[in-house]
Specification:
globular; 6 strands; Uracil-DNA Glycosylase, subunit E; alpha/beta; about 260 residues
C-alpha cells in the first residue's frame, strides 16, 4: 500500500535513517522546544537524576513493516525522557503487552532504548514528535510535524495496515490517505469517517485503517479501554495481514471488536 515513489531508489531502512536525523534535528516549534526542555530540567521525584532525551522523538521499528501504529505524541516523562516512542510510560506498558501477545514484539515491556525490545513487521510513530503541554499540540505544531509522518509512511514499502491510537492520530492518517491517493480516496471516503474504537476503513491499494482508543491512563484507568478491547484490534490487524493481499477476511471471519 505505501510504496515509496520519488525516493524508490533507496531502501526503507536508508530512508528511515534519513528521516530520523531530520526529526531529531527539528526545532520549528518554539513552544514545544521550550516545554520539552523545561520538562527535562524539572522532572518528578521518581525520575530525579535521570538523563532526558529532550529532543524530537522519531518513529522506530521494522523497515519491512506491514503494520504501522500512530499515536498522539511522546509523553513528557516517557518518550521525551527515553528517546523512544511509547517507552517508559503507562501507555507504553499497555501497548507493548498487546504487541507481544499479538506476536509483533519480542517482550511485553519497553523501559528504555537499550532494554532489548525488538518489534517485527511493525513500526511505531506519532502525529507530533515533541511532548506538548497538557498533551494538546497547536494546529501549527501538528502541521510542522505532519511531514515527518508522511515521509515515514511513504518509506515503508510493505505497509498494509494502519492503526490509529486515538482521534488525533485517526484524523492525521486520514489526511495522509487523501493526499496519497486523492482520486481513489474521494470515491472510497465519500462519507466523512468518524473516529470510534474498533472503526475499520478499507483503503486504496488493499490497505486497511483501524482505530482504537488511545491506551492513556484516562482511558485505561476508567475502563473505557480494556485489554480485551485493545487485543481485539490487534487480532483484526493480524487477520488482515495473514489474509492474501487481494482478499481481506469477510466481516463474518473478523474478530469481534468490543466497544463501549
Amino acid at each position: 500500500m505505501g510504496s515509496p515513489s520519488s525516493e524508490g531508489a533507496f531502501s526503507p531502512a536508508d530512508l528511515l535513517i534519513e528521516i530520523e536525523r531530520d526529526v531529531v534535528a527539528c526545532g520549528r516549534c518554539p513552544r514545544l522546544v521550550a516545554w520539552r526542555e523545561e520538562t527535562a530540567r524539572r522532572p518528578p521525584k521518581r525520575y530525579a537524576g535521570c538523563p532526558y532525551w529532550a529532543k524530537p522523538v522519531p518513529g522506530f521499528g521494522d523497515p519491512q513493516a506491514r503494520l504501522v501504529l500512530v499515536g498522539l505524541a511522546p509523553a513528557a516523562h516517557g518518550g521525551n525522557r527515553t528517546g523512544r516512542m511509547f517507552t517508559g510510560d503507562r501507555s507504553g506498558d499497555w501497548l507493548f503487552r498487546a504487541l507481544h501477545r499479538a506476536g509483533f514484539a519480542s517482550q511485553p515491556f519497553s523501559r528504555d532504548r537499550e532494554d532489548g525490545l525488538r518489534i517485527s513487521d511493525c513500526f511505531v510513530s506519532a502525529a507530533v514528535r515533541c511532548c506538548p503541554p497538557e498533551n494538546r499540540p497547536l494546529p501549527l505544531e501538528r502541521e510542522n510535524c505532519y511531514r515527518f509522518l508522511a515521509r515515514e509512511l511513504e518509506a515503508l514499502a510493505n505497509l498494509r495496515v494502519l492503526i490509529a491510537l486515538g482521534g488525533m492520530a485517526f484524523e492525521t492518517l486520514l489526511r495522509w490517505v487523501k493526499e496519497r491517493w486523492p482520486e481513489e480516496a474521494r470515491q472510497m471516503l465519500r462519507k466523512r469517517p468518524s473516529f470510534s474504537h474498533g472503526a475499520e476503513i478499507a483503503l486504496p491499494k488493499g490497505g486497511t485503517l483501524l482505530a482504537t482508543y488511545h491506551p492513556s491512563q484516562q482511558n485505561t484507568f476508567t475502563g473505557r479501554l480494556t485489554e480485551e478491547m485493545f487485543d481485539a484490534v490487534f487480532a483484526r490487524a493480524r487477520a488482515v495481514l495473514d489474509a492474501p493481499p487481494e482478499r481481506n477476511p469477510t466481516r463474518e471471519e473478523r474478530p469481534r471488536v468490543a466497544n463501549r
